[in-house]
What we know:
The protein is an alpha+beta fold. It is 41% helix and 24% strand. It has helices at 104-111, 125-129, 131-142, 146-161, 169-180, 187-194, 198-208, 213-231, 236-242, 248-259, 263-268; strands at residues 4-10, 13-20, 29-39, 43-46, 52-57, 63-66, 69-72, 76-79, 86-89, 95-102, 122-124, 270-271, 278-280. The strands form 2 sheets. Strands 1-2-3-10-5-8-11 form a 7-stranded antiparallel beta sheet. It has a 6-stranded antiparallel beta sheet with strand order 7-6-9-4-13-12. A hairpin with a 2-residue loop joins strand 1 and strand 2. 34% of the residues are buried.
Amino acid sequence: MSIATQSVDSPLGCWTHSEWRPARLAGVVERISFFAGTLTFPRERVFPDGRIELNLQLGEPHRLVNGEQIEPFPAACLSGLAPSSFVIEAPPGPCRVLGVRLSPSGAYALLARPLSELTGITVDLRDLFGPAAAELMERCRETVDGEEILRITADWIAGRLARSPAADPAIAWTAAQIERRAGAVSISELRERTGLSKTRLANAFREQIGLPPKHYARIHRFRRLLDLLRREEEPLAEIALAAGYYDQPHMNAEFREMAGLTPGEFLAAVRYPGSVSLAEGA
């Protein structure tokens, strides 16, 4: 797939966005993207999506908003699986950000370390890759063209993967089945097909994906729910059943726990085009 670049000038801001899904990194990288521009709303609410994010902030760093506490992210960082929503705050003025969305099994191969250590937290990329992270950051900062930044990053990831062990095929398969069926799958049936014991599957899944299988399934069911809500085509009760919840109250409780708001509040909020992320004021 070729790199797609678009320019946006809207009430939400003015920016250029490039996105690429390099075929040679399929199964590891879902997409590499580059954003350059300004945003009208200073904050963005991001929801759990079963992915691990690598980010390079090539200007002033974004910040994590946790109640009254606001802490800057490392300029180059990696965020493990998010079990619930969180809010980030962009710096004032123009910003340039590279983002790599990794599948958990791909991140495990890239990092060669237990992903359970990274769940729910963001770490400095230099602590994971040492000088290689600083070299990537320097090359991207010196490059003006956004599409070239994507190519540089893809080459960097490919180089790391060539020296890393692959994830256990049984665990990668189980995670892929959970994702493909949006969490609507029996974990015990998947375990039987892998031939792994209950304890072995739970431990290996937590190590190589970052969460227990049932929690990972909850995230993907929630991800499908967000997609259905974004379309706003059906009543909430029908959306709840289509997403795999027992009923609307069950969906509402799960939504509040994972999103930090109600489905109605989500529908009333301002969303970025082509995304479920919400634009929020300070």
